[in-house]
Amino acid sequence: MEQYQRENRDLIQRNKTREQEELEELLLLEQQGNEQRRLDLLQEEQRQLQAKRKNKQALLDELEQSQLPATILLAQHKVRAAKLETQIEQQKQA
Questions:
Q1: Which residues contact 23 (CB under 8 A, 6 or more apart)?
Q2: MAT1 centre domain spans which residues (predicted)?
């Protein structure tokens, strides 16, 4: 065994180096995938926050401009907000 190792030291070292490089490449790919997933989640959260803000602003605009009673407008807003939350939950599960 020792004789084999001495005779093939360079070959053994090249194989170890190649295996190490392959492992490092796999690790890098995994890290890049994790970073991309993190960025995608962050972007999705930003879109959700923007949609919620837009919905709240729409309610304020309706309250300012509509002739309907505020209770009706608030009820309509609650329905829209519930639909938005349902859509967000469905997107999270997908």
A1: none
A2: 1-92
Dihedral class, residue 89 (left if φ above 0, else alpha if ψ from -120 to 50, else beta): alpha
What radius of gyration, in Å, describes the C-alpha atoms of the chain? 29
Residue type, 11: L
Could you read off the pLDDT tens digit of each residue along the chain, which spans 94 residues? Answer: 788 778 888 888 888 899 999 999 999 999 999 999 999 999 999 999 999 899 999 999 999 999 999 999 999 999 999 998 898 888 878 7
Domain ranges of the chain: 2-93
DSSP 1-44: -HHHHHHTHHHHHHHHHHHHHHHHHHHHHHHHHHHHHHHHHHHH
Instruction: For residue 58, give the nearest of 72, 77, 79, 75 by alpha carbon.
Output: 77
